[in-house]
Amino acid sequence: MKILSIAPSYFPATKFGGPIFSTKLLNKYLSNNNIVEVVTSSAGTKFRNNIKYIDNIKVNYLPSYGPDNFTYSPGLILYLLKNIKKFDIVQINAIWNFHFIIGAIFCIVYKKPFETYPKGSLDKNAIYSKNKNLKLIYLRLLRKLINKSSLIVYSSRIEKNNSIKLINNKFCEIIANPVEKPKKTKSTVRQKTILYLGRIAKNKGIFELINNFNKTTNNYKLIIAGSVEDSKYFEMISNTARSNNQIIILGNQNSINKTKLIKSCFCLILPSKVFENFGNVVAESLVLNTPVIVSSRAGVSEYVYKYRAGVIINPSKYDLNTCLINIKNNYKLLQENGRLLVQTEFYPDNIAKATNRTYIKVMNKFYINK
Known about the structure:
Oligomer: single chain
Distance between the termini: 18 Å
């Protein structure tokens, strides 16, 4: 099977968060039994009109212009004109970008089945929270393209259930994001640290986390690490944290440093205030045997709850002390449950097999009807 993966950005553009890693990992395992090629933009990388091989997969980085969140890349049109005919199926990632518009149009014109991975971009809460009218106009213009998808793939039931009603979910599947254990991981002594690892933005609940942490009675440290998405918000949390020397704020971390932080902390926390499609960092922590505290609004929480692999919180009202005591009293059990969860739900080979099954099903239906 020849698969084309269209993405607005791709590894090593890690500043765009978890979807970068999950798309890369899925393609890596899909390529074990298929021919996979990626076309993306230069956003978040130093590549300009370059071809690189990542995980032995050909990745075409095309120049992009304007804001990174739209990735206007006219070279994509020429690429698809030359290449789309040779692929059996197309995988398109995210909605709010030039790559989705052009990719979907080409698939329809050239009669190619395509699966859409929204990556949280169809979440009604995110749409209504900022630039609502502009987003709704955009969606109304593009909903025919979205609804022409042979299949929409969500990473959790939470993501599907919170998708905006303009979208037809008649043909959809739920497939979790894959995660794998880093190959080289040294044994590390656990420290009394609580780790937040992710983008620093208002919807992540970091300010509330700091206030909660200031009320804790145990001698823990709080580490906040990630790329700054909102500079004013970052300044606010920095000023709030300055009065407590037990709070440490770090910048964005590379893969090696992320692994070190996760392996050495007591637990990881994801206190997201709004719904998010998954929460890759939670899966990355579980694969390293680190217990987690997870907002009920993160898609990954449904998996954590099912396997009793962590503590689920209401991000609007939770007691961090109680969470820490719960984890301390059940540490080994949470680690065991976390390992079972990863092996059953997040193992990349299983995710690739499930994805392959959807591709075959979609192609059979598409080309028979054609």
